[in-house]
Amino acid sequence: MLDVRAMQRTITERLGLPWVDTETEDTRAKLLMKALARKRFVILLDDVRKEFHLEDIGIPLPDTVNGSKIIMASREQDVCIEMGAQQSLIKMQLLGAQASWNLFFSNLSTDARRSIESSYSIKRQAEAITKSCQGLPLALNVTSRAMAGLKSLNDWRDAMSAISTDLIEIGGVEEIFQRMKYSYDKLDSTTKKCFLYCTLFPEYSSIRKEQLVDYWIAEGFIPQNQRWKGNVMIINKLKSACLLQETNSGQKVRLHNIIRHFGQWLANQESNFLVQSGQKVESVPEIEQWNGPQRISLMSNDIKNISLSPNCTNLETLLLQNNPNLKSLGPKFFKSMINLRVLDLSNTGIKELPECDALCQLHYLNLSQTPIIKLPKKFWVLKELRYLDLSLTDSLEETYDNCSKLLKLRILNLFRSHYGIREISNLNLDTLKELNFLGITICTEDVLKK
């Protein structure tokens, strides 16, 4: 699905122009058209799936006068023709046998290369594995990295057997997924869970490392006192296995589109996920669909309200962030969510939370950038809560001294919250013995002393 806003933001940042969040897409397109019309540019458009008008993004049509270029990649030739690129089509071929072998061989360790060069039998096994990747660079990269340390003939036979045994007689992408699955199977159980968690995010989105680690800790994948394990070990393992990519900033990671679909394919086999993130849906799934999933992601949509009271005792993760038009939740919405550990409502229009007595296992709650006015009076029942984000809550006026009763809190963020800017008489930090992060805006001397 075309994300006009994301494309406009990328171009705006590359041009060094200010980003104004309140501007409409049409207004922004006109500004970008003017800015680009004065430049000679090259724009790369990857994975284009359907026709769209460049002018809607703010990209002027290239011509011989301005000398600008647009390079577009698509899986479908018809899309290229519809976009007017029929005169300069280049069909990308799969790698040939020698190129595939060169790519596969280049990712192996020195010891693995030596074993291949010194043993005809090992070389035959390695060549068979290379051939099974069918010239797809991504599959070759993922598989060869997973086998980089193999040395003995038995190691290579076991690797070939693992790929052959799992092979399902289905065509296309799923057949490639079976071959890529070898890298996933080599991961430890914790890293597998962390990888599948990444598939909850929208297609093409970048994910902050810090946010991922916060989720993983709340889910119990990583111990509270081993935050470094998420940043250093797990993310690096996934990058090394070519399952996760780091962005230029170094602060975020992303899933390649094919890898994301691969992860969802795995999740459908091994877990029970319901993912409709970033699909511009306006309503939540039917109540029957809430019964089984362990994790539900409806983030980055246009959902306006949720009135149902689902029976979802298995649910551990509910991600509803970035639904700015979501104004209300049904009064009994949380009633059966007795095992919920992660709840993200950030950047929504929620003004108040419904009854939350059932959320006795909740570890993570994000209400940042919401117009919430007050916390529920019985908010203190969330005794397992470790992470509470109330930052940028401009309307928050009353907490009923609930924060000081959440004795397991480790992270409390009140930065730029209306509550706490002038007076925090009922924020008794002395009771929060586990607290190791406090975000707060200090505007008066009394608040500073407190």
From TrEMBL:
This is Disease resistance protein RPS2. It comes from the Eukaryota. Residues 200-260 form the Disease resistance protein winged helix domain. GO terms for molecular function: ADP binding. Residues 6-105 form the NB-ARC domain. It holds the Pfam family NB-ARC. One of its GO terms (biological process) is plant-type hypersensitive response. InterPro entries: Apaf_helical, Disease_R_plants, Leu-rich_rpt, LRR_dom_sf, NB-ARC, P-loop_NTPase, WH-like_DNA-bd_sf, WHD_DRP. Keywords: Plant defense, Repeat.
